[in-house]
Automatic annotation (TrEMBL):
Name by which UniProt lists this protein: Patched domain-containing protein 3
Gene Ontology terms: cellular component: membrane; sperm midpiece
Organism: Engystomops pustulosus
UniProt keyword Transmembrane helix, yes or no: yes
SSD domain ranges (all copies): 1-82
SUPFAM superfamilies recorded: Multidrug efflux transporter AcrB transmembrane domain
Length: 549
């Protein structure tokens, strides 16, 4: 919306509304379409992840952005046209009552602000630039094109990249379960005390025999014992604290000289075991004289980090697969441990596929392959920066931050794509001039979009929920780094590392500018200078004739 408004303000006030709308859409529609396609595809690519929560989020958000785009090019454009009708008939901005025409010389700034929406040049016919827009063209653009500024920006970027890459290797994997509750929840104090007093003990994992077996068969008994021993031999498992009804039953039968080598005796003598240790009754499921299923428990130890939890999960599952009997290992915490096993691979997969998709869309819609490469490079740079600075801001790599990294993939393309398209679409042949024009057109809308987005989520920074605070942190990093890349790094790269306009393109542009259009450009430049003189030195310019050229 900010870009459409900015493009509308660049049109001539006295032109027909249809012409102003055409010029607005010609300037803004392609840029908006590029970023919408990349955003939507980035989120839909996130559906490839194995996390259901991330899939649902990506479907919802991608569809929402698609509807936002349709709204912008239809409803918002219609409101823009209606406002153009109001301006054309010189009606009040609020009550829409027609305002009496006055001589231009008698119009005050209060009249322009309250009645016709602001001043405009009587000569060029365009609205007067906003002070921020003028700043980007007259001060910031030339400053950024200074060779020493470019060198400083290059050194600054290298420092940013080095610190980001270092941070990427410091990011912690896994979700801390206490972060799923609010700061005031008793759950946090529970996990704090558990870490303080029982940190040496890990989860008590259930080993379930999932099929009906002949437990009385000596060969089957040997397979069960070997399976249990393979679990106990794991360095993360304590032999003394693990529990098996089957091991206890065999030891009891040996001491009491019970016969458990046939079905009837094995089943009948179980009642003795259940009488001595009633809790074992819950570990054996007997139906119609057959043991349908049973379970054992292994106590894990020395599980103190997300890496330990991931290794534990992988090792016990591997052991279960190698057992000679069908077993399943389970603990309620495995739903979180599962994230550790695939979080890195899923993140890399989504990032790589999304970056490739961004490049394809950019190269289709931005008419220059080199600039498309710069957009893709910017996306990768922002993702690396956000991931690296997650470590400095105490954000772990988990399903929550992964959702936000998908947002990062989508939003990181916005500012760079807008600047890149504006850079390659203007008719200047020199890189420095193209940068100034691109900043003049989109500098202020980018600042507006970035500031409004940060203001929209800043309230979440004070939330008691880790999830909301994480959302704010990553959105802030994405928007801040995206704005810095779009307004600082990328414009310098366009000029410092080569012009995106090839020699053939420059020749074609020069050939397209005929003598008449060149005269018009000179005239417009003169008129803009004249407006500046009249504004700042009215007494010095009373005798000047604007029609002199």
């Amino acid at each position: 919306m900010f870009i459409m408004i900015s493009s509308w303000q660049q049109t001539k006030v006295k032109d027909k509304v249809e012409d102003r709308m055409a010029d607005t859409y010609a300037e803004a529609a392609v840029s908006i379409t590029i970023t919408t396609l990349t955003d939507v595809l980035a989120f839909y690519i996130g559906i490839l992840t194995s996390f259901q929560s991330v899939q649902s989020f990506c479907i919802y958000t991608g569809t929402a952005i698609l509807f936002c785009f349709l709204y912008n090019v239809t409803c918002f454009g219609a409101f823009l046209a209606l406002n153009g009708r109001r301006e054309e008939s010189n009606r009040h901005w609020f009550i829409c009552k027609k305002v009496a025409e006055e001589e231009d010389t008698h119009r005050s700034s209060a009249y322009n602000m309250c009645c016709v929406g602001g001043g405009y040049s009587q000569i060029s016919g365009k609205e007067t630039d906003h002070p921020v827009t003028s700043f980007f063209r007259n001060q910031y653009g030339p400053f950024l094109n200074n060779i020493w500024t470019k060198i400083f920006v290059l050194v600054l970027y290298l420092g940013y990249l080095a610190s980001s890459i270092y941070g990427c290797f410091q990011v912690q994997e896994g979700i801390d379960l206490r972060n799923l509750a609010t700061d005031s929840s008793y759950v946090r104090s529970f996990y704090d005390n558990e870490d303080l007093y029982f940190s040496e003990y890990g989860p008590r994992v259930m080993v379930v025999v999932t099929e009906e077996l002949s437990y009385w068969d000596l060969d089957v008994q040997g397979k069960i014992e070997r399976c249990l021993e393979s679990f106990i031999d794991d360095p993360y498992v304590s032999k003394s604290l693990s529990e098996s009804w089957f091991t206890v039953y065999r030891e009891m039968a040996r001491q009491m000289n019970l016969n458990i080598s046939d079905k009837s005796n094995f089943i009948d003598n179980l009642s003795i075991l259940f009488t001595r240790i009633p809790d074992f009754r819950q570990d054996v499921d007997i139906q119609s004289g057959n043991i349908i299923a049973s379970r054992f428990f292994i106590q894990t130890v020395n599980v103190t980090s997300a890496v330990d939890e991931r290794n534990l999960l992988n090792q016990v599952r591997h052991t279960a697969k190698t057992c000679e009997i069908p077993v399943l290992v389970y603990h309620p915490a495995f739903i979180y441990f599962d994230q550790y096993a695939v979080i890195i691979s899923n993140t890399i997969q989504n990032t790589a596929v999304a970056a490739a998709t961004m490049f394809v869309i950019s190269i289709l819609l931005i008419p220059n392959p080199l600039c498309s490469l710069w957009v893709t490079f910017t996306i990768a740079s922002i993702i690396v920066g956000v991931t690296g600075f997650m470590a400095y801001w105490n954000v772990n790599l988990d399903s929550i931050s992964m959702i936000n990294l998908v947002i990062c993939i989508g939003f990181s393309v916005d500012f760079s794509a807008h600047i890149s398209y504006a850079y390659v679409s203007n008719h200047n042949t020199k890189a420095n001039e193209r940068v100034i024009e691109a900043l003049h057109s989109l500098g202020y809308p980018i600042v507006q979009g970035a500031v409004s987005t940060i203001l929209g989520v800043i309230a979440l920074s004070a939330s008691e929920s880790y999830i909301f605070r994480t959302f704010f942190k990553i959105i802030f990093l994405v928007i801040a780094f995206g704005m810095i890349h779009g307004l600082v790094f990328l414009p310098v790269f366009f000029t410092f590392f080569g012009n995106c306009v090839t020699h053939n393109e420059a020749t074609k542009i020069a050939a397209d500018i005929d003598e008449q259009s060149l005269d018009n450009d000179m005239k417009e430049t003169y008129l803009n200078d004249y407006d500046h003189i009249v504004t700042h030195f009215p007494k010095k310019s009373t005798n000047a004739d604007p029609k002199c050229p």
